[in-house]
Design a protein that fits this description.
By secondary structure, the protein is mainly α. Helices cover 43% and strands 8% of the residues. A 3-stranded mixed sheet has the order 1-2-3. Helix 1 runs parallel beside helix 2. It is globular, with a radius of gyration of 16 Å.
Length: 173
């Protein structure tokens, strides 16, 4: 399984544009069309309804899977620790209060920092369970995700990675 995490900007359309290049091939980057089994773009709503709708349309047109979180990616992080179901980001005080909420459980967390996800990866099953329990683990177009607050397509991405992983043949060394 190959994972490339290229973040050109936080604009969802820019993120999907780069992902579409990976799907369709990019001679300048040495990527042949069809090189990747799946290509995912991860972004959040964060008050950008118009951009998100354009990004989801662009993703659908180019075979890119969209892992969209509503209202913010931090909801996915919070599900590692709590069964969060209130619309809007926690404490409705914006990202700084979301940071504080996540830091209550993971003190080294900081938005935009190089975070050590190995500190919470062991809680991914809890995050998946919280998302499934709420029926908000979904991939795809803006319509479904924009109507579900909170929701996140990150769980669909993890499910896809798990399916991909189980298809791999064990190799003897």
């Amino acid at each position: 399984m190959s994972v490339d995490c290229t973040i050109p900007s936080s604009d969802p359309v820019d993120i999907v544009t780069v992902a579409a290049q990976a799907v369709n091939g990019d001679a300048d980057a040495g990527i042949a069309k069809g090189f990747f089994d799946q290509v995912w773009a991860v972004f959040d709503l964060d008050g950008r309804d118009g951009q998100v709708r354009r990004a989801c349309d662009l993703a659908a047109d180019n075979g890119v899977h969209a892992a969209l979180s509503n209202p913010c990616f931090d909801v996915w992080l919070i599900w590692h620790f709590a069964d969060f179901s209130r619309p809007g980001c926690p404490a409705s005080g914006g990202s700084s209060s979301t940071d504080r909420y996540v830091r209550q459980h993971c003190p080294s967390y900081g938005k935009g920092k190089h975070n050590r996800w190995n500190q919470i990866v062991w809680l991914t099953a809890d995050a998946m369970a919280h998302a499934r329990q709420r029926g908000v683990c979904r991939e795809g177009g803006a319509s479904a995700v924009l109507q579900a607050d909170p929701s996140s397509g990150v769980c669909a991405l993890i499910e896809a990675a798990d399916r991909c992983h189980t298809k791999l043949e064990p190799r003897l060394v």
